[in-house]
Amino acid sequence: YQLNSSTFLEGTYGFIRNQLAGGASIGATGTGGILVNDTSNRLASLPGFPLLYPNAGVVDPRYYAFGVLQDLNPVWFDGQRINLPPAFGWGSRIQGTAGVGALPGPPNQVFPGFLNINRTQDVAVSLTKVWAAHTIKGGFYNNHSFKAQNTGAGGVPNLGFQGYVNFGNDTNNALDTGFGFANAATGVFTQYLQQSKLIEGSMIYNNTEFYVQDNWRVNSRLTLDYGVRFTRQQPQYDQFLQMSNFFPGQWSLAAAPLLYLAGCNNGATVCSGNARNAVDPRTGQILTAPGAANTAAAIGTVVPNSGNLNNGIRQAGDGIADTSYVWPRLVVGPRFGVAYDLTGSQTFVLRAGGGLFYDRPDGNTVFSIPGNPPISTSQDLRNGQLQTLGSGLSTAGVPALIDFQYNAQVPSSWQWQGGVQMALPWAMALDVAYVGNHGFNRLRSFQGGTNGSVDLNAVDFGAAYLPQNQDPTLGPSSVPGASAYTSNLLRPFRGLSNINEQQTRFWDEYHSIQMSLNRRFQNGLAFGTNYTLGLSLKGNTGLLLRLQHAPDGTISIRDDQAAYEKLNENLALQRHVIKSYAVWDLPNAPAHFGLLGRYLLNDWQVSGVLTAGSANQPLAPQVNNQTNGRYDLTYTYQNNGQNVNLTGSPDYSGPDGRAARIVYVGDPGSGCSSNQYAQFNTAAVTGPQYRSVGLESGRFILGGCPDHTVDLAIARNIRLGGNRNLQFRLDIFNAFNTVVINDRERNVIYRSPTDLTIVNSQYLPDGSLDPARLTPRTAGFGGATGAQPMRNLQLQIRVGF
Predict the structure, then answer these.
(1) I want to staple 791 with a disulfide (CB 3.0 to 4.6 A). Which of 401, 413, 615, 737 is the partner?
(2) Does a structural domain hold residue 311?
(3) Are residues 743 and 795 in the same domain?
(4) Quick one: 547 and 678 in the same domain?
(5) Residue 225, in any domain of the structure
(6) What is the DSSP letter of 553?
(7) 3-class SS at 666?
(8) Residue 217's pLDDT is what?
(9) Based on the domain organization, do 349 and 409 belong to the same domain?
């Protein structure tokens, strides 16, 4: 609305809503939707399977999911509860190093990872005033978000109301048969994990901003832009107050519940099978259950009525904020920019700008918090048998928590740039700029999850080696950590499992030179190129916070944290990035070619795009925390090489699942080679040894192969009179059939830390290629497993009118 000739009022309102179902709530793969097959009904397919929480599938009528399930009425929903079977894991001998649910393991039948509704409402109002050489603008903006979604995203891996049973082989499991299917047949599990009930967060927030800015044309050569933005970034929270937080200072060792230890019912010190049972640490009495051959599955679970199950935990609104965490109510972001015309003819312009910006964390950082105690709990049983659970053994869970640092900061970044713009002959323009960014108060990762959180209750390095932490029923072992108690008996905050907290203590910094050269479309030709030279990308985002604990629960950071961060300061910098294009309208045929010649030769256009750069993007950037082609080598031990054996802690693993790092004993090369069977020097690495503290090597040491791909398009336009035309267009992707290897086998498999024989070698002992590993699908360590798509063509016919 124009108030007068120099004053303008603008306002907008927007409303967006979508409803989605997808992903897998448990495991790396899933259907991504609502199952309709009859076997997905647990009551039909596995009616006698012992659940830790038989009523976990009951759906709260307040939930969005309840209405959806009422409408769809799937076979596994009886109108009140979901009756899906648990998800299953099968171990490395069946699934290799792949995640839960990956082939060739049997598919899991799971609830969608997200069954949700997303609704946003946006209001923006601004007032603009033109006053002499100033254009002043002030405004208000509010974004209101509502999202109802079941917990799981960003939460503890494989934790869900259905339950997750890992039958995988594990040499640290005294009951292990050595093969996942055999373990399932005998009821032996390595882990049984289940949440006590289905929880759906009803998440809301308001993002409110006020701003004022001025564009001041000081004179014909100098222009200034400056302003300030005031941001009220409300934490995203559950309106049903289902969230909670953990406060280490409020946790009390005296109030902590006791956990069952291991003992022998035959009077021996070392025992196995049905002789090994849970024992009450207060009395030394063996736990028995009617009909159960043993109670080993209860080892490491809570002794009933022995302490406060919510020790150190406060529910939202109970003495803490309704949002369950807080950060500054108002933050201020100044902005400034300047442009100066050196010549006065706009042929050489200097420009610079900078400002302070604020980021809203991804919703997955909080979506699983509503599953915490006291709203919900969970059980994480280790190394037991299903038969004992189905015979009357009842256990009390040691719950895991997801929370957000209570007194957090708003993630922020200073961003700046400065450069020149030049007008060149032949309708060209050159732009050269230095661009930088310093992020602070950052989260460990953008989307949270256990790979983006800080585990406040991680088992300290070396704890599994200590004499007081050895399970006497397992007997001494030559393998470090193999005789240690189960993980929950080693945790500092007794009575709780992992406490994965999002913390705003991380930073990163980027520096680059960015250039562009463009020619406007003139005389039938246009072209342009953009080039970025990455100078530096460093920070501690993605790194672990390595903690140590005192007996009273006091937390401190290990002395080697600084050395660890220095070793891993380099992030996934892509050194060179080039994107170029050209469009050429071919000249029309001269008159002497005749009507037919001009008809055939006129109105053709050829265009192309060059994509080039160092360390191109791999096929699977999420694997091993790879981004922009930088990657690391990893290892797997078939036996006696779990994290607890190598570091004395089952925790502190990176995105690749390893706590100890691979050891470099030579130069691995660049990470890319013309030899598809040797992308790097495999002899340059070896496996880590026992008593590691994870400082063997840094991250992003190797880089993928450079990209240099050309795409072409040839088009012919035929005029049909008036506004009508017919176009024939041929697109040729990867026109020159360029081979760019973009993935390789990065994981070396050893037999054990004491037997470093490579199981997946690409070459035989005599140096010849292994004939069983000649294809990407079967490649051994160092071999290429993927490449970008080869040349493909697309023909289009378009009619315009």
Answers:
(1) 737
(2) yes
(3) yes
(4) no
(5) yes
(6) S
(7) coil
(8) 97
(9) yes
Q: What is the dihedral of CA 416, 630, 402, 641, to 10 degrees?
A: -150
CA 362 to chain centre: 11
CA distance 765 to 545: 42
Residue identified by tokens 């299917």 is 181
Q: Mention every residue, 6+ apart, whose C-beta is less than 8 A from residue 540.
A: 506, 507, 508, 565, 568, 569
Rounded CA separation 154/618 (Å): 23
| Domain region containing 476 | 204-361+403-575
pLDDT for residue 232? 97
Positive or negative, the CA dihedral 31, 33, 34, 37 is negative
Encode pLDDT of 349-379 as tens digits. 999 999 999 999 999 899 989 989 999 988 8
In a domain, 375, yes or no: no
Nearest to 152, CA basis, from 106, 98, 115: 115
Looking at the domain assignment, is residue 638 inside a domain? yes
Alpha-carbon span 234 to 716, nearest angstrom: 54
Q: Please indicate, yes or no, whether residues 248 and 162 belong to a single structural domain of this protein.
A: no
Which whole-number Å values give the CA distances from 673 to 213, 634, 694, 702, 747, in the listed order?
53, 19, 28, 12, 17
For the chain, the maximum distance between any two Cα atoms, rounded to a whole number of angstroms, is: 110
Which pLDDT tens digit goes with each residue over 405-436?
Answer: 999 999 999 999 999 999 999 999 999 999 99
CA distance 464 to 148: 41
Tokens of 371: 């599953």
* Residues 618 and 749 both lie in one domain: yes
Instruction: Say yes or no: 322 and 392 in one domain.
Output: no
CA 131, distance to chain mean position in Å, is 49
What's the pTM? 0.87
Mean pLDDT check: name the lowest of 341-350, 377-386, 631-640, 648-657. 377-386
pLDDT, position 621:
40
CB < 8 Å & 24+ apart, contacts of 468-472: 471/261, 471/262, 472/262, 472/269, 472/270
> DSSP secondary structure string, 398-427?
---EEEE-SB----EEEEEEEEEEEEETTT
The β-bridge partners of 12 are 124
Q: Are strands 747-752 and 634-637 parallel, antiparallel or unpaired?
A: parallel
- Out of 521-535, 616-630, 722-736, least confident range: 616-630
Q: Please tell me the distance from the alpha carbon of residue 166 to that of residue 477, in angstroms, as a whole number.
A: 24
Peptide bond between residue 425 and the one before it cis (omega within 30 degrees of 0): no
Among 401, 429, 452, the domain-final residue is 401
Do the beta carbons of residue 70 and residue 79 sit within 8 Å? yes
Query: What is the overall mean pLDDT for the chain?
Result: 91
Are 42 and 50 spatial neighbours (Cβ–Cβ below 8 Å)? no
Residue among 693, 703, 239 at smallest CA distance from 465: 693
The domain total for the chain is 3
Same domain for 570 and 581: no
Which of 377, 401, 425 marks a domain boundary?
A: 401
Q: Are 770 and 697 found together in one domain?
A: yes
